[in-house]
Amino acid sequence: MNHIEEQLFYRLTKVIDPELGKSITDLGMITGIHTSPRDGEPNTFDVDITVELTVPGCPLSETITRQIDAAVESYADATLIPHITVGSMGKEKLDNLVAQLKAERHQNPFNKPGVKTRIFAIASGKGGVGKSSITANLAATFAALGYDTAAIDADIYGFSLPRLFGVHEQPVNLNGMLMPAMNWGVKLMSIGMFAGSDRAILWRGPRLQRSLEQFLADVWWGEPDVLLLDLAPGTGDMAISVAQALPNTELVVVTTPQISASDIAVRSGLVALQMPMTVRGVVENMSWYEHNGERLEIFGAGGGERVSEQLTRDLHYDVPLLAQLPLDPEIRETGEAGRPAVLDAAGQLRIDEFGQSFTRLAQELIRRP
Fold this sequence. Notes:
Layout: H1 3-12, E1 30-37, E2 44-53, H2 61-73, E3 79-88, H3 91-105, E4 118-124, H4 131-144, E5 149-154, H5 161-165, E6 172-174, E7 177-179, E8 181-183, E9 186-190, H6 205-217, E10 226-231, H7 237-245, E11 250-255, H8 259-269, E12 278-284, E13 289-291, E14 294-296, H9 303-315, E15 321-324, H10 329-336, H11 353-366
Helix pairs in contact: 4-11, 6-7, 8-9
């Protein structure tokens, strides 16, 4: 390599594959860099760069190409004209790369000493309280705040995160290792992304546990700052599996204001008495409906406070009421259209009261208890 080619290779070490979270040079994706002077144009060079992607037609190839262009343009000592040739890895090279990545990761990457990922499980005592909507909006908030964010739809029977994030494609299968889908800045995995997911699922204990193990160990997550799990309602097999596989999980309990919901919500928090979990707090959803400037408490009032007080008493540590969120048809309509309602159409956090509520909730959770 000449001096310019060495400098370009160094700059390309800073280009990160969006799916694998590693440098494209470390992954062996750069197979050639060649510079040649342009006739009649002083200090100007054509730069031919050959790139091998992990899969043909990689949906993020344009992202990688743009980053390579930017790395070439950052060279200030000459004018460089990039010419990028994109191909895909051969089977043997890809097999070796996947084997290397699996050897680095071993099994569940979130249950190793020194892992930095904060894990929050969003739980509820019953269905219909907006738990999945809160999970989606909280994940989108973390991502918009700059955190590397992942989410697992652990509600195997009632998965809804793919719809709420507007994800319709299946995960990319990289020789037996799955790449999570990504939208609105969040890496996502759900049983709802796979063929036949519209059929009734009749799994029980062992198979449910295996589905979670696969989502943890067979998916390349990288090292996210935050992982959210949308749990099934109640205290069944999946909640137990999460506690066993991810003992550093922090629980957030979702309820609505009425007594019938809040009493059941307490049970989901009391799982922490039998499992190595900490309950970080309570979120009360559908607290009021705004009508002509008046807040109507359609489902009553006080449910979040009741759950907070009872869990604080039974668990013998403070379990605060973290947020109260409104009942708003726009939130449902936007979410069902494939965009977390906490984001505007440009993918930025809303600056109104709703957006500020989720910002405060995310900042409180990420703060060490």
